[in-house]
């Protein structure tokens, strides 16, 4: 095939892909870290309320319920949170708070007495039960208290 024709075909495929993306993305969706609120409001006093003022949200925009049992959420310092038996339903978001509390269908607690998410920079890593990397979200700013991933 002449070089020009091959390029044209490639361009056509690219255009078609771009046109399909919005619908595909909506239909397929993702399960990902969607937001990290890393700098708790006020001073870091280590009260349970302050510890629960930092959290990570994970959103399931797929059309399928996903069991997170055995998945892990870790920071750069390798504080690891292992998910208990928990199913994230389609279109739902779960908030994983650092402090202590009673787990619900929308909020899980790491049950910690110390902070996890650095107030300046860190990386949240979500791994599947078998240890494979699923998604990461990094931040590096003291100008904001949170990161939208
Ligand atoms: Ca923090």
Automatic annotation (TrEMBL):
<protein>
    <submittedName>
        <fullName>Lamin tail domain-containing protein</fullName>
    </submittedName>
</protein>
<feature type="signal peptide">
    <location>
        <begin position="1"/>
        <end position="27"/>
    </location>
</feature>
<dbReference type="Pfam" id="PF00932">
    <property type="entry name" value="LTD"/>
</dbReference>
<feature type="domain" description="LTD">
    <location>
        <begin position="19"/>
        <end position="148"/>
    </location>
</feature>
<keyword id="KW-0732">Signal</keyword>
<dbReference type="InterPro" id="IPR001322">
    <property type="entry name" value="Lamin_tail_dom"/>
</dbReference>
<dbReference type="InterPro" id="IPR036415">
    <property type="entry name" value="Lamin_tail_dom_sf"/>
</dbReference>
């Amino acid at each position: 095939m002449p070089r020009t024709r091959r390029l044209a075909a490639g361009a056509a495929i690219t255009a078609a892909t771009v046109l399909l993306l919005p619908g595909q993305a909506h239909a397929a969706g993702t399960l990902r870290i969607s937001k990290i609120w890393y700098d708790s409001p006020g001073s870091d006093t280590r009260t349970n309320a302050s510890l629960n003022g930092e959290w990570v949200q994970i959103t399931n925009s797929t059309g399928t319920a996903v069991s997170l049992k055995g998945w892990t959420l870790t920071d750069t310092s390798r504080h690891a949170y292992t998910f208990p038996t928990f199913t994230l339903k389609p279109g739902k978001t779960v908030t994983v708070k650092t402090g202590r509390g009673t787990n619900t269908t929308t909020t899980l607690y790491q049950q910690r007495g110390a902070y996890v998410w650095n107030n300046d920079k860190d990386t949240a890593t979500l791994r599947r039960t078998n240890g494979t990397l699923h998604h990461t979200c990094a931040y590096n700013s003291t100008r904001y208290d949170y990161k939208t991933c």
